[in-house]
Automatic annotation (TrEMBL):
Chain ranges of the LUD domain: 117-214
Protein name: Lactate utilization protein C
Domain of life: Bacteria
Listed InterPro entries: FTHF_cligase-like_sf, LUD_dom, NagB/RpiA_transferase-like
Source species taxonomy: Bacteria, Bacillati, Actinomycetota, Actinomycetes, Pseudonocardiales
Pfam family, one: LUD_dom
Amino acid sequence: MSAREAILGRARRALSDVPDVEPVLDVEVVRPVPDRSASRGQVVDLFDERVADYRAVVERATPATAAERVAGALAGRTPLAGSGPLRILVPVGFPAELVPGDVEVVTDGPDVPVTELDRCDGVLSTAATGIAETGTIILDHGPGQGRRAATLVPDLHVCVVRADQVVPGVAEAVATLDPARPHTWISGPSATSDIELDRVEGVHGPRTLHVVIVEE
C-alpha cells in the first residue's frame, strides 16, 4: 500500500460515521451596490467612514489647511534616531507646500536603498484615486506617490487624497486607472491575524495610515 492510499484510507475511516451533506447551490449572494445617485459630499463622507473603519486616521482639510493637517500627522512622533528631526520620505512630485519645514526630507528615488527607507520615520504621498464603497486608496505610483517600496517600508504613511479623486465603487475606480501602470490598493494600515487570531499591525507595511482628504 502506498503512502497516499494509507492516508486516504485513514481519512475514509475517520469520516465513516459522518452523514453526507448535499451542497447548497441555490443560495443567492447579495453584494452591496454603491449608490450612484449619491452627491459628491455623500460619496466623500462614505469614503471617510470606510477608511476610518480600517483603524486609519482620517482628517478633512481645505487647500488652505492641508499643510497644517500633514504637519499634525507627524507631530509628537519619536524619531527612530532617538533625537533630532523626523526623517520623512518624500516622493518626487509631492506638493512642496505640504512638506513640514521642521523635518529632514529624504527624497525617494530608485537609487535609494531599502535600508535607507527603513531608517525613515514616515512617508508622504498623494494618491491616484479613492473608493468610497470599500474605503480603499489606490496608488499608481505616478508623481507624488513614489515607488511601491516607499509606502510599504516606513512605519507611518500620510496620504493626501483630493475629494474629487474619490469615486463611489470599484468599477469607477478601475475605469480611471491606466492598466499599463503598477497599482497598489491600500485598505487601512497593514495588519494580520494569522497568529492565534490576534491582530498585529505593521507586519506587511505601515503600522499607521493617516489620510488627509482635501476638499475645495
